[in-house]
Structures are given as structure tokens and as C-alpha cells.
Design brief:
The protein is mainly β. The protein contains 1 helix and 7 strands; from the N terminus they run βββββββα.
């Protein structure tokens, strides 16, 4: 019988002896038992538009919340959460990084713009 691997590429591996969980660097969630998200997670608690209770542990690149369901008001100018109560774990397409974590994340997505209008094609000049 082939030995089972002790590590899965790109996914969590439960360390049963220590009760800890090792996560791939692109995971959204910190280790088991730690409420919060990594700063690169595009969730309400990492967004500048969300006003819920949160703190940071920047040495570990994390935004901490009491629970993933911690409520906060969204002040986004548009989007599904605009003006509504949103939970820390929710997300939408208008996310912008919270100022406190901006240096750890980089800029948010560029604003959506429409392509410039082009004049109608005219017949070739001979």
C-alpha cells in the first residue's frame, strides 16, 4: 500500500497532533480557531467601505474580527452592499483595500470604464 502524503499541494493539511492547520499562501482564512481573514482576501472586513469592528495583526498579514458574521455598514457608492448591513465574510465587486492594510495588499481593482467611443468608419479615400 502506498503511503499517504503528509501534504496536499495548494490545500489545507490538518496536523492532528498539534490541532493546527497549515494553509496554502493563497488561502482566504487564517488557521483554524483564528477569526479573521488574510489581508489579500477581498472580504468586507478588509474593505475601506465597511465600518464593522475589526483590528489587524499585520505581522501575520491578517485582519481580525470577532466572528466571520460580525456586522458592519457598507458605504460603497454602488454595488450590492451599498448602504446595507454586511457581514465581515461577505464580498462584492466594488471592494477597495482598507487604508490600514493598503501597503500590504496593493491597489484595489481598477474602476470599470467603458471603451472610448470611436467615430463611425468612413469609406476609404481614393
Amino acid at each position: 500500500m502506498k503511503d499517504r502524503p503528509d501534504r496536499l499541494d495548494g490545500g489545507p493539511v490538518q496536523d492532528l497532533f498539534k490541532g493546527a492547520c497549515i494553509f496554502h499562501s493563497m488561502s482566504l482564512y487564517p488557521p483554524v480557531g483564528v477569526p479573521g481573514f488574510f489581508v489579500r482576501a477581498r472580504r468586507c472586513c478588509t474593505c475601506s467601505y465597511w465600518d464593522g469592528k475589526r483590528s489587524t495583526k499585520l505581522s501575520e498579514h491578517r485582519v481580525l474580527v470577532e466572528r466571520h458574521s460580525t456586522p458592519g455598514q457598507c458605504s460603497a457608492p454602488r454595488g450590492p452592499g451599498a448602504g446595507h448591513r454586511m457581514e465581515a465574510s461577505q464580498t462584492c465587486g466594488v471592494w477597495q483595500p482598507w487604508d490600514v492594510i493598503k501597503d500590504y495588499v496593493g491597489p484595489g481593482p481598477p474602476p470599470k470604464t467603458h471603451p472610448p467611443e470611436t467615430p463611425d468608419a468612413s469609406p476609404p479615400v481614393e
